[in-house]
Design goal:
Layout lengths: L1 E6 L6 H18 L3 E11 L2 E10 L4 E8 L2 H18 L1 H10 L6 E9 L17 E12 L1 H10 L4 E6 L5 E6 L5 E4 L6
Parallel strand pairs: 1-2, 6-7
Antiparallel strand pairs: 2-3, 3-4, 5-6, 7-8, 8-9
Helix pairs in contact: 1-2
Amino acid sequence: MRYQISGKQIDIGEALQIHVRTEMDDILSKYAGRPTEAYVVFSKSGHEYACEAVVHLSTGLTAQATGKAPEIYAAFDSCGEKMDKQLRRYKRRLKDHHKERSQPVELSDAGSYILESRDESDETGDDAVSGMIVAEMETKIPSLSVGEAVMQMEIASAPVLVFRNEKNSGINVVYRRDDGNIGWIDPRTSD
């Protein structure tokens, strides 16, 4: 497995990197089967360290966790505990999806944009309808079943997930509703 361990404006020593690799290997070997890569980023805000970990699994799913603590090792340990809990919760489903899937998840390229937020009081004329693009990025849209998409959204603690439905190859959306349930948008094409 490939690791990328880095710090945002802080130095990450060799001992911490070894600790991260060892602990992540222990966590992932219990649940994930064959993870492909992991990104672990440390940062500091005031007196508190933060650790964010993203692990790409061979099933095509991505697990994410964050942890904060006054010490850098404790921040990683908190992050690791959250990752362990997520993967433990979905262990059976992760293994079932891995057995069904003979090929890795197919990813399609897409553009992702961040638009400037506008106050309602600022709206004047036609320009108020369209916001200014603040950032432009590349993203990947996975080809998943609806069940895998819901699991991916829950593992990543994301409010919404856009995916290509494996059954009909259409672009679908799953999202967490205000009432706590999961919503699924499956656009129909007119014949």
